[in-house]
Write a structure and sequence with these properties.
Layout: H1 3-21, E1 27-32, H2 37-50, E2 55-57, H3 63-73, E3 78-81, H4 87-91, E4 94-108, E5 116-117, H5 119-127, E6 144-148, H6 153-161, E7 174-177, H7 180-189, E8 193-198, E9 208-209, E10 211-212, E11 225-233, H8 239-247, H9 251-259, E12 263-264
Parallel strand pairs: 1-2, 1-3, 5-10, 6-7, 6-8
Antiparallel strand pairs: 3-11, 4-8, 4-9, 4-11, 4-12
Length: about 270
Amino acid sequence: MAFSRIAAVILGLWLAGVNAASAETRRLDIVGTGDGIDVLRVVAASFMQQEGSARIEVPPSIGSGGGIAAVGSGKAILGRIARRLTDAEAASGIVYKAIARLPSAFIVHPGCGVSAVTSDQLVAIYSGRLANWKELGGADMRIRVVRREDQDSTLTVLRASMPGWHDLEITEKSKTATTTQEAIETVRDVQGAIGFGPFSRPLEQGLTVLRVDGHYPTDPDYPSSVVLALIYLSTLQDPDALAFLRFADTQKAADVITSLGSLPVKP
C-alpha cells in the first residue's frame, strides 16, 4: 500500500474517531513509550469509530518507565511499554498485554544514497569505523550517527538480536535522542544521518528504510523486533479501558496493526 493511501486511511480513522467521541467529554490517556505510537494512535482511532464511548488519547512519549510509574501509582489507567515488566513490577499488580510486534528498523536521510547494508556494515557505522556514505556506494557525505540512551527498548533488542551489537561501543561522535520521535525527526532533518526505531509505514515518508542483509523490516526473516504492550492494574474496573483492551484483541485491531507494517500479537 502506498504511503499516501495509508496516510489517508490514518487521517480518516483519526477524524472518524474524534467525531465519534465528540459527544463524550471523558478523555482516557494511554501513556508511556514512544515506540509504536503511530500504530497505537490508529488502533485508538479505529476503536473510537466503532465504540464512541470515550476519547482515547496517545500523548507524546514519557518512556516505558514513565508509563509503568504512572499506572503503578494510579495516575494513569492504561499505559504502553516496549519492554517486559520486571518481577517487582509484575508483583505490584501491573498486568502486561502484548498487542504488536514492531520490527526494529534502521532509517537514513534519503540524501545518503544508500538503501541496503549488511549487519557487518551497521556495526562499522555505529562503531565509527565507517565515516562516509561513499564507502558504501552512496553520496560523498559524512555519516552522522543518531543513537538512543542505553536503556532504550529498541537498542536493548538490537544488542540481543543483531550480530555484533551485544558488546558494541557506539561511537562518541553520535547524537543521543531521548525519544523515538526525536530520533526519527533528527534523521529526517539532518543530511547524512542514520538512526533506528520501531518500524511503521509512516517512516517511509521522507526517509529511507534500510534493508539489512537483504531483508526489509516486514520480511519474515528480518532479525530484530520490539513488542508493544498495554499495561494496567489487575484491579482495573474502568469500563472504557476494559472495552479498549477487548478491542485490542479483535480482528479489526489486528488488521490496523498489519496495515502499518507491524505484526499483531494474538492473545
